[in-house]
Amino acid sequence: MKVNRAPLYSVLLLNSFALFLILPIIFFLIFKSHFFPYLASAPVHYKWFIFVAVMIAFPLGQCIGVPFIGSRSDYIRGKPLFLIALLGETLGLFFSFLALYYKSLNTFIISRLFTGFFTANFALCFSYLASSTNEPSMLKKVMGRATLSIVAGFMVAIFIATFFSDANLGNFTDPRIAFLLATFLGLVNTAIILFSKNFLLSQKVLPHPSISLLAKLKTILKQNYILRKNGTALLFLLLCISAPLSFFSSIIFGIYTLNKTWLMALLLIIGGVWILGFVTNLKYKSFSNNALVLFFSALSALALALSFAPSFTVFIICFAGFQFFASLLSTNLFSQVVMHSPSDARGLCIGFAQSLGFLAAAIAPILALFLMISPSPVKISNLFIVSFLFSILGAAYLLFSKRAIK
Predict the structure, then answer these.
(1) CA–centroid distance for 406 within its chain
(2) pLDDT at 255
(3) What is the full DSSP assignment across 155-223?
(4) Which residues contact 102 (CB under 8 A, 6 or more apart)?
(5) Eight-class DSSP state of 133
(6) Residue 94: is its pLDDT beyond 90?
(7) What is d(CA 387, CA 29) in angstroms, rounded to the nearest whole number?
(8) pLDDT grade, residue 405 (50/70/90)?
(9) Known InterPro entries for this protein (predicted)?
(10) Is the pLDDT at 207 greater than 50, yes or no?
(11) Which among 18, 108, 128, 402 has most CB atoms closer than 10 A?
(12) Is 184 within 8 Å of 297 (Cβ atoms)?
């Protein structure tokens, strides 16, 4: 029976759209809107604290839920696991809408944590796609198409999200509608999985492990040097790029005082640069260890330049280069994690790799917040110091490792 990958690509695209549609709106909700009235008179440092709390709630939930749910894909094949994850995520998005409707900040933060816990669809899709072929070249193409689906969803979401954060455009652009739209897309994803045929149902179901998932993962990482090395380098990379993306809206509105049209255009440029990086990466089977060190070094140099960018033109050129090298590194390192994962624990390893991203998305904004908050006005440019430090650590780690990544 021929494997039908189309539903998986559709889920990745729509799920990416639904999730990224929300991110640009969070800054508006905390700093510019009337949905949480008591924040209007709150000190700016307190608003930054709330902003970070909202930002880390979602990845914190992912960090807990994705490895747990994703690892089950090695033992539970087909639709049930997907339906549980999709319905849980959809319910969480609807709870977020209700929290905004009743103007409850605490409920909103809890709903983001709940949504993150069930957002295992990326891990499930990558796990099933990785299991659909044993040919390395085909596997890389499949992973590339999956990643392009995510980036396509990101670019469309950013374009639309700009309008949901502008109250001057009318009631239809109420941010709450964005959460309703995301909820609707969650239901569409559920229908796609529910009614799809040949949905990898012929995959072999593995027996449930006799040891705990954490113990199994620890054993795999201890025995598999390449997997351990790629995973560590991936963590440094994700810590490097998480802070700038989390606070990108703050940079545009805080330093360069640009409007939402510029924000939309720049985020679309980021998506285009990532696509360019993915396409470039597909032409190479893998990058040498020296090339990866060079890419990390380029990231550190660009991060340092971004901290002292004298003009907006210099900033956008350096930021585009920063995102390009980040896309090369992330695609290569994640592909290596997938290809070197044991066949009987691929879902567990993919869930682990993605949980690193969620962990970075939770840690990096907190570190950046300490640099940004001071007695003087908030220094948003300081967050690139976080990127500089982690890119240097990533380059040093690969440079002094005893074996090369193949």
Answers:
(1) 25
(2) 66
(3) HHHHHHHHHHT-GGG-GGG-HHHHHHHHHHHHHHHHHHHHH-SS-STTSPPPPPPSS-HHHHHHHHHHH
(4) none
(5) -
(6) yes
(7) 26
(8) very low
(9) MFS (IPR011701), MFS_dom (IPR020846), MFS_trans_sf (IPR036259)
(10) no
(11) 18
(12) no
pTM (two decimals): 0.72
376 class by beta-carbon count within 10 Å (0-12 exposed, 13-18 middle, 19+ buried)? exposed
Tens digit of each residue's pLDDT (9 = 90 or more) over 238-251: 888 877 776 666 66
Structure-derived torsion over alpha carbons of residues 107, 111, 117, 121, reported in degrees to the nearest 10: 180
Burial of 316 (0-12, 13-18, 19+ CB in 10 A): middle
DSSP string, 25-45: HHHHHHHT-SSSGGGTTS-HH
Q: Using CA atoms in the order 144, 149, 152, 156, what is the torsion angle rounded to 10 degrees?
A: -170
Quote the tokens at residue 102: 């009743």
Q: Is 11 in contact with 27 (CB distance < 8 Å)? A: no
CB atoms within 10 A of CB 139: 18
Angle between helices 289-307 and 225-246 (to 10 degrees): 20
Structural domains of the chain in order of their starting residue, each with its CATH number: 6-203+213-399 (1.20.1250.20)
Q: Cβ(161)–Cβ(23) under 8 Å?
A: yes
